[in-house]
Amino acid sequence: VSAFSPEDVSTDIGELSFITEPSPEDYVYECIVSESCLDDLLLKFKTCKYLPTCDALVIRNEKSIAGTLLTVYTICELNHRCELWWSQLMIGNRSCGNLL
């Protein structure tokens, strides 16, 4: 049985053209937030954000956890349920937290 040696692999430089140095935008500061502090922040959102024309009062917040993603919803007096905040970056409808 022979052992693998990196010298045995030849690589065309064209294959590496996608590799670049990270830019400042590639770095994301991660932090831990206490739920009680998040709740204090959520109290600042007093009116519905579901529609630009809805100014009904927010009557409650809901939190949903899927894996490591926390999503916060507001529910207004007219029963609009609005996604207000995500704890992680989203790519389309997928969270990035489990990938980092």
UniProtKB/TrEMBL annotation:
<protein>
    <submittedName>
        <fullName>Uncharacterized protein</fullName>
    </submittedName>
</protein>
